[in-house]
């Protein structure tokens, strides 16, 4: 972070300031306090950092921002809402940098697309990116405040659960280009319908200049049909023949995918060290971002070939006798289908899907779990092992649709034993579920039982 003055910060957030100080760092967690920092006391459903203001000052905070009365020896800037103040400071700070900033949102695939896009831009620019999925009103300001004069571009991921959240994020981040990966059903219980989700995602335009382009997935029905007037819109896809950037001639093995991108400037071969049509879409999107930001197509393609999956997002682990697809970071109906499709497309003797509950689906949960079970049968998965209260719907529907081996578990030990029982030489296993179901514990237990070191 570049230096700001405390008085300027006070001006930005509308607070009274009697003492001026140089601020080189802003902290919201007492575990990361730096001497001379500005500490912002955020309040959430399960925490209130106002309780830790004295500790923050004792550890070296030079000043604090609060929306409750506190007793401390450092200068205090009082505001109505510290979360709003944090966003406003980040928004002002972002305005100090005239760089390409790509804002990414969508129902699924935001984080993977962000990783691909950051790679593409790094072919020419030193690029700041959202770490992990810090994509809310706390994570995004933290990312923006990581900018300094050495950065030449940034990629910012934006998530939401309700109307107005993307609006708030984009007003501060001011994207020079917006990306919407898809419109699915995540958070449909809060937004009412897929049309509501589309409306919420299009809020990304609220913080973009009139001449800032928007990049949309042409294979997504809602995005392909969206009416967006007065703005340059580019489309990427695989199936859509009208996409400006389109993947053709796709071939894959169990570890990588090759394809050609047809685009206005010609055709460019691309190799990515991962599988699944959704990852091809992510890479095509990133290619478009790179080319539209002035990078040579061949340079972008070279960078995309260096992609490494983030966290447990469809990480493929090759063992001597079997292959594991680790995909336990999050789960929605769309990402479930993408992962199941990846498993179905693998060259394996036996294909085993180990699926846990998809959370936060509200009244739609039963129906959407049943649809995923039906998809397992449609994709001719050999074995379905389901874990969790709602996961029973996977099995009942899969069995109804003709899948012969579908078993439901509420105990992880029993699940593990069933996984081991079903495994055979040359098999492939997909582990997929919402992060709150902690399927990674079953994966690790499997590796331990098989004597495999997972690094």
Could you characterize what this model shows?
By secondary structure, the chain is α/β, with parallel strands linked by helices. It has helices spanning 6-13, 53-58, 82-94, 110-121, 139-144, 165-173, 188-191, 194-201, 221-225, 277-292, 297-304, 333-344, 365-378, 392-400, 412-422, 440-450, and strands at 4-5, 22-23, 26-27, 38-40, 63-66, 76-78, 101-105, 127-129, 153-157, 177-180, 214-217, 233-237, 245-252, 257-263, 266-272, 315-318, 322-327, 351-356, 383-387, 405-409, 427-432. Helix 3 (82-94) runs parallel beside helix 6 (165-173) and helix 12 (333-344) runs parallel beside helix 13 (365-378). The longest helix is centred in the middle third of the chain and has 16 residues, at 277-292. The model has no long low-confidence stretch (mean pLDDT 94).
Annotation keywords:
455 residues, alpha/beta, Udp-n-acetylmuramoylalanyl-d-glutamate--2,6- Diaminopimelate Ligase, Chain: A, domain 1, UDP-N-acetylmuramoyl-L-alanine:D-glutamate ligase, Protein-Tyrosine Phosphatase, Chain A, 3 domains, nine-stranded mixed beta sheet, six-stranded mixed beta sheet, 16 helices, globular
Count of domain modules:
3
Outline: globular
Q: Give me the secondary-structure category.
A: alpha/beta
In CATH terms, what is the fold-level topology of the largest domain? UDP-N-acetylmuramoyl-L-alanine:D-glutamate ligase
Low-confidence stretches: none
Computed over alpha carbons, the radius of gyration is 24 Å
Reading off the top of the CATH hierarchy, the class of the largest domain is best stated as: Alpha Beta
Tell me the major beta sheet.
Answer: 9 strands, mixed
Percent of residues in beta strands: 15-25%
Number of strands: 21
Strand order of the largest sheet: 8-9-7-10-11-12-13-14-15
């Amino acid at each position: 972070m570049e230096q700001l003055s405390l008085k300027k910060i006070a001006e930005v957030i509308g607070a009274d300031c009697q003492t001026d100080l140089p601020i080189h760092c802003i902290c919201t967690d007492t575990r990361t306090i730096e001497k001379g920092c500005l500490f912002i006391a955020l309040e959430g459903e399960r925490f209130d950092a106002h309780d830790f203001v004295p500790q923050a000052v004792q550890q070296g905070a030079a000043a604090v921002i609060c929306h409750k009365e506190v007793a401390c020896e450092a200068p205090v800037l009082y505001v109505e809402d510290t979360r709003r103040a944090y966003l406003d400071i980040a928004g002002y700070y972002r305005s100090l940098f005239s760089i390409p900033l790509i804002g990414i949102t969508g129902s699924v695939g935001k984080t993977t697309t962000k990783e691909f896009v950051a790679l593409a831009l790094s072919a020419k620019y030193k690029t700041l990116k959202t770490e992990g999925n810090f994509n809310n009103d706390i994570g995004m300001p933290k990312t923006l405040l990581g900018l300094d004069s050495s950065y030449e571009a940034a990629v910012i991921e934006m998530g939401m659960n309700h109307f107005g959240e993307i609006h708030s994020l984009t007003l501060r981040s001011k994207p020079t280009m917006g990306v919407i990966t898809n419109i699915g059903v995540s958070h449909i219980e809060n937004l009412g319908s897929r049309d509501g989700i589309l409306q919420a995602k299009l809020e990304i335009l609220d913080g973009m200049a009139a001449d800032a382009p928007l990049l949309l997935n042409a294979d997504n029905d809602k995005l392909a049909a969206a009416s967006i007037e007065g703005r340059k819109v580019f489309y990427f896809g695989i199936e859509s023949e009208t996409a400006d950037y389109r993947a053709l001639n796709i071939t894959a093995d169990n570890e990588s995918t090759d394809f050609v991108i047809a685009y206005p400037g010609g055709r460019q071969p691309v190799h990515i060290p991962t599988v699944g049509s959704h990852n091809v879409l992510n890479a095509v999107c990133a290619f478009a971002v790179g080319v539209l930001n002035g990078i040579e197509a061949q340079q972008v393609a070279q960078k995309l070939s260096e992609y490494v999956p983030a966290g447990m997002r469809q990480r493929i682990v090759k063992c001597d006798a079997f292959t594991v697809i680790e995909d336990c970071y999050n789960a929605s109906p769309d990402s479930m289908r993408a992962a199941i499709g990846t498993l179905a497309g693998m060259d394996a003797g036996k294909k085993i899907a180990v699926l846990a509950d998809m959370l936060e689906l509200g009244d739609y949960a039963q129906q959407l779990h049943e649809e995923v079970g039906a998809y397992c049968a449609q994709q001719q998965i050999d074995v379905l092992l389901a874990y969790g209260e709602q996961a029973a719907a996977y099995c009942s529907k899969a069995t109804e649709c003709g899948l012969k081996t579908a078993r439901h578990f509420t105990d992880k030990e029993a699940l593990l034993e069933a996984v081991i029982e079903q495994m055979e030489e040359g098999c492939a296993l997909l582990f997929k579920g919402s992060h709150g179901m902690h399927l990674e514990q079953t994966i690790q237990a499997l590796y331990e039982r098989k004597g495999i070191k997972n690094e």
